[in-house]
Amino acid sequence: MNRLFVFISLFFMSISLYAQPIITSISPATGPIAGGTNVTITGSGFTDTTDVYFGPTLALNAIVNSDTSITATTDLAVPGVNHVSVVTVSGTSTPVREDLFTFQGNWICYVPQSGTPSNLLPVNIPANTLGSLISTGANSTPKGISFTPDGRFVLVTNSTAGNISIIDLAFQTVTLVTVGSNPVSVAVTPNGQKAYVVNASSNNVSVIDLTTTPVVITTISTDVLPQDVAITPDGLKAYVINATGNSITVIDTVLDTVLTTITGVGTRPSSIAVTP
């Protein structure tokens, strides 16, 4: 009996020792990039916690309240969404949707304004205050908007003018590039080298080279009345939704040719997005 008792005790000790920590929720889920946010982490297997990370950033401190609760303080970090991870002698928590923490930066939301002249209205986040108007350089009806990956340039389609404004936000200078008729949306490749502009009335897409002075390098035909474009995270394909064609045009962004057309997607589709 004594041997059996020792065996059972060691068995359950080994289960406890090697139980991987699990995070089921965090609160709050947002905080400033300056750090200093006290975050309560709820889950299990926290008794032997050694470290807590917010993405790649080590927490300033981590207090183990119990096996199911930790209070950790964020340190200075860069803006973005990160997984919180708990490190114990038994392992590291597996990333889950419930452990995401957002470091809020000085983000700005830009709202196109129609009229004469046409402008962009900046909205400062997270303060939610309005900034000073930025001219698009075109008296038209701005619709689509996209940014280069470094956030320096914003591209705005001017639907009634048949061109696109490329605005240098650092100097607020504008470069106008002529595209097709009724440009309604635009997307920039993840490497920032190309922009794809959807021209609704021309039934095509203008491809703009952004590596030098912006210029249209080719035009790709789509189905009828294209409305929106989305680019895959690897930058290899662009998907264009066609309202009247009830279809999706799939573009090879390396060769800038149509790979295929997906039909039967529904009546008058108007927008499209790709998962990150």
Descriptive terms for the model:
276 residues, single chain, mainly beta, six-stranded mixed sheet, elongated, 1 helix
Overview of the structural elements:
The chain has 276 residues and is mainly beta. It has 1 helix and 26 strands. Strands 2, 4, 5, 8, 9 and 10 form a 6-stranded mixed sheet that branches. Strand 23 and strand 24 form a beta hairpin. The radius of gyration is 25 Å and the shape is elongated. Residues 4-16 have low confidence and may be disordered.
Summary of the model, kept short:
With 276 residues, this protein is mainly β.
Task: Detail the topology: elements first, then pairings.
Elements: H1 2-17, E1 22-27, E2 30-32, E3 38-44, E4 49-54, E5 57-58, E6 61-66, E7 69-73, E8 80-88, E9 91-92, E10 100-104, E11 107-113, E12 119-125, E13 129-130, E14 134-135, E15 142-147, E16 153-158, E17 163-168, E18 173-178, E19 183-188, E20 194-199, E21 204-209, E22 215-221, E23 226-231, E24 237-242, E25 247-252, E26 257-263
Parallel strand pairs: 2-10
Antiparallel strand pairs: 1-3, 3-7, 4-5, 4-8, 6-7, 8-9, 8-10, 11-12, 12-13, 12-14, 15-16, 16-17, 17-18, 19-20, 20-21, 21-22, 23-24, 24-25, 25-26
